[in-house]
Each structure stands twice: as C-alpha cells, then as structure tokens.
# Entry
Amino acid sequence: MKKILLVLIMALVVSLLGCVSKNNSIELKEKGKEEYYVGERFSCEGYTLLVTIDGKTKKVNLDETMVNVDKFQSEGEKKIYVEYKENGVILKTTIIVMVKPLEKITLESISVKEKGKIEYLVGEKFDVNGYVIECIYSDKSKEEKTVTLDMIDYVDEFKETGEKIITISYTSEDVTKTAQVKINVKAIEPVKIEVKQVGKDYYTYEYELDLTDYIFTVTYSDGTTKDVKLEKGNCTPTSFEENITDEPIETVITGTYVEGDKTLTVTFTVNVYSEWGYEEYVGMLESLELSEKIYQDLCDIIPTEATEKINLPSSKDYGYKFTLLYSSSNADVLSPTGNVTRFDDDKVVTITLTIKNEYLEKTYTWDVLIKGLGPVILRPWDNSKKHIFGYFYEGTSHLMSEDDARRIDVINYCFARVRNGICDISELKYLNENIKLRRSTGVRMVLSIGGGGKDTYGFSDACLTQESRKVFIDSMMEILKKYNLDGFDIDWEYPSWEGLGDSKPVDKANFTLLLKELREALDNYKEGLLLTAALIGGVNVDRFYEVSEINKYLDFAHIMTYDLNNSGVASHHSNPFKGNRAYSAKSAMDTYHDGGMDYNKIVIGAAFYGKISKLKAPTTPEQALNKATESATTIHYTAIVEMMKDSKYVKVFDQSTGAYYLSDGEYFITYDDPQAIITKCRMTEQYNLGGIMFWDYGSDATGTLLRTMSAEISMINSGR
# Structure
C-alpha cells in the first residue's frame, strides 16, 4: 500500500509540474540589432518577447531591466541572457548576437553640396559664405561641414578675368580629401550714368547748350562711383529753335560717355522759353536765389528758444525787393512783430514768413520754444477765513498795484462777453498785466463773464441746450487753460427777466445746468478752481434762481448788495441794514440763506461808488432822506471824497440802516463810507459768511475803502 501511495503522489507532482510548464512560457518574437563591434553596448531597441503566464499571452518590449550586459570586450558569438518577472513567475530565454572586431572609420570623399557666390569682379576675394561640403566615410555615413577660409587654396584678390578653379580641402583623422568649384571673374566696368547736379536748364533760341554746372555720376559694376563732366560735343541737340508760345517747350538732351569699350547714354530735360518767357523765368530764378538768402539770414537770426523780443527783418532791409509777411501760430505768445509774452509753461510757436514779389511767392517756417516762467505760487487758501473778492472792471479801472493785489484774495477780472455762443475775451486790454500781477503777488484771478444790461445778452441762447452749453463751456475752459486762470465768475443779469433782451422762461433752470456742467468741467481739469456768481441783491431771488440747487455747485455767491435804492426817492443804495428801506445787505443775505444757500458761501457786496440825484425841492441836508428826486447817476468814491472837501456838503448818518449819505440840500449822494465797509465786514464774522466783495477797483483811486476792508478782515481772521 505504501508503494502504491508514493506512486500516486509522484504522479500528481509530475502532473502539476506539467501544467505549470505548459501554461507559462517566454520566447523571442522580434529581433533588433544582431551585429556589434567590440566596445559597443547591447541595444534593446527592436526586440520584443512573447510572454505566456497562466495561459494568457502578451507582447512585451525588451528593456534594460531584463538583461545585464556591459560593453562587448571581445569578438565572436555572444549569448545575452533574458529574465522576465511577473507576479512571482520567473521566465528566462537567451538572445544570440555576433561581435565583430573594431574597424577604423576613414574619410573616403567630399563634394560641394551648397554653393555661395560664383560671380566675382577683379579685385574681390573668394567669399566662403553659403558654401557647404558633404563628407562621406568608410562606414557609408555622411556629414555636412561649413566651408571656412582655411579650407580653400586661394585667399588673395582676383587679379585676372576669366574662369578660376577654387579647391576646397578637408582633413579627418589624417585623411585629406578635396573638391573643386568653378567661379567666373569679370572686369570692373561702367554700367550706368546719371545726372547728379543740374546746371542751366532754361534757354531761349539765342543761347547754346551750357554744361558748365552739370555733374554726372558714373556707376561701375563693383558699385563704386565717380563724378564726370560731359562735353557739349557729346550731346544733342546743342542749340534750340525759337519758341513763340507762352509756355516753355521741354527738350530732351541726349549725352554719351565713353570709357574703354563701354559707351553709356544719359538723358536730361531743359526748357526752351520765348523771349518774354525767358525774361520772366530768369526773374523768378533771381528772386528765388534772394529769397533763399533771406531764409538763411533768418535762420541765423531767429533763435530756437526765446525769452524776449525777436528782431525780425522787414522788407526795407532787403531794398524792398520783396514784401516780407510774418505770421505766428500763437500771437498771444509770440506776435508777428516778434514780441514775446511768457506764460507759465513752455510753448512752441511756429513763425511763418511769406516772401513775395512779382515773380515769386515763397513760404518758410521756424519753430521757436518760448520758455515759460514756471508755475505760479498762489497764496495759501483757508476756507475757515473770510475772503475779499475785488472786481477789476476795465471800463473804469486803472492798473492794480501790487500792494492792493496783496490786500485781496481773488481778482474778478471783467468782463468777458458771450458772443455767438462762446466766451469772448477780445475786449480785455489788461489781461497780460493782470496775469503778471497774479504771478508777482500770488493773488487768484477768475474771469468774470457777462455784465449788466446788453452785456448780459447771449447767455440765454448759449445755455439753451446741452449741446450749446458744452460749446460755451468748452470755449471757457480753453481760455482758462491758455492763461492758467483760477476759475470763473458768472454775471448773468438776470436769468428769466421778462422783457430783458433775449431772456426766456427756461433761463432759470438753464442757469442751474450751466453751473452744474461748468463745475464738472473745472473739477475734471484741476482741483481748487473757483466757481462764483454775481447774484441780484433784492429779495425776490426765487424769480431768477433755484437757490438750493445752485448752492450745490457754487463756491461763493456774490450778492450784489448795492443799487438797492428806489427810483425817484432819496434813499440808500448799499445800506447794511434794512431800516425802513425795502432792501439791505442783511435782508438779501437772509433771503438767500432761507432759500437754501449756505452762510459760508454767501459773499455780501460793498460799493466803491455812489449814486447822486438832484432833489426836486430844496431842503436841509438833514431832511434830504426820502425826498423826491430826479433820476440818479453813478458817481465814483474818488469824486465823493473831493465833494466832501466842500463845506456845503454835510455827511449825515442814518442809524436805522447803518449808512451815511451826503447832501447840500440840493443834491443827495448815497454811498459806502469806511464805516459802512467795517459794518459789512463785521457781518461776515457775525453770520459766518464766506467774505465780502466790492465793485469796483477803479472807482476808488484813493484806496481808502480797500485799505479799510483789508485791515478789518485781517483783524477778523486773526481773531482780533
């Protein structure tokens, strides 16, 4: 029984081993490289195995992890052992390769594969650029090499024409091979002739061809050139037929140039004139020559940069042979006569000169940099302080002194007008002087636009639509930028005033829109620019303004608290307090504040002028107030001071209004005296107003009222 059991166990083992062997196998499917040289390493590339594990067969690429072979050290047949592992199964096979003894690889031949330049001129050298050779080796491998100068047999200049063989040599492992290339060397010869300089090209039948000033350029095959002259005998034609027309006749001249065995031809054109045409053309040429001389003279005179007047020659400097007309691209900076006005920034101005006579009109231009003065240093601005605004009206004002400019904070320079929908400053005479004053004193300067009566016409149409307002505002901003102003003051007297000029019911709303859109334009351009408006001093302000709305856009509202007197009655025109009057500075201030205007934006007005009227019936000076009068006329404070020197005039104080008047019993004069100025200044402190303004600087040549105002405001700002 034991023997039988042992036989059964052995049979089972054999059976199991047979199953493993049958279901797992490995064999070489595809072969790679089978021949090697001594020193080479076995390559797995191209070899694939057919692997069967557990009855499942797949294709596997041979890789270096399956073999362990170093470089072949000797020749002969070599066995490569392959071992494949997967899931505990190890399969093995072998690969047989042949290793040959190492052979020396040598250069067998070279050939020109790519050519460069093959056409040369005498004097040139061979150029290797573009030349490439192909090298073929004993193992049939190929290699490209760029040709260098050390590979060629000729490096000197070519001295002779004709075909030439250039030999290229290349050495590898002590083996040298050569290749040849044919080139062609040509002689240098003239190939072209052209006109370089034109001489006399105008004739009449009386004249022969003149080549004196002509220069011709000959170009050679090597690119070099030389200038030559042509003889008249080598040209045709050399004389000209008579022209009896008013226009020149073009005649083609053909010239020949001979050098060696080469003949070149050149053509050029001349004009043949009639006798009268010739004379006119000669006159034109002479004029052109002189105009060019003038131009060259001016090139020496006109600087590229300037800070002062440029002396520009006139026609008389050239014997009146020409009319010299100058123009400037920016006459405000550089006038046509050469006067220079410097602004803050550098400005480039183009001077244009037109030279004219009977034969010629020629224009020349020069660019000149007018150096700027640099930025203006304005005085510090403190919104917590009370400010003085002074109207400078060219209709009455003398030039403001620097001392007076330092007494005020803002010059309201007036008036620009509204003309054809745009802002017009053509009437302003002292603009440059005021700009200089701004620079020297640091005072701010705003441009006041409008005025009273007919001077306010134009606002209504200019502000009628969004489009028209944009045109108007754009023109204002152009002026502001050009002269570096500090803002605008709008003096529209008055929006929606029925029956006044071009006034319309929509003006009230359009005035608000004007301020809104102008505010936006100013803020978009620069911080700190001022927008103010001169507003009516009466109590019926809602008739003209949307007070709470314009308060949003104005920096200051200049309330014109003057011209308040009733027509035909002797009464105050600029009284601080109401008393028994209809209007006053205080009532106007209250009316605007009640309507929505911030106190700190309200600026009350002081008058540097008075009103004089004749009483209809004589009385005593003390009884003149409220008496019937004839029409009142304006009188400057300067004249009032002179009247006070006459003892017949009595100065009377009206306590209820805080105002003085002057009378001799025959005439009544109402005005702001220094005490009224002080009263109004103290109102700015009491009600925390923005400040005080006055109309106008030129009405008080004594300077008394401005000095009084400046001293009082200074004390208020210093806290007394």
Observations:
- The two ends are 141 Å apart (CA to CA).
- The first helix runs from residue 2 to 23.
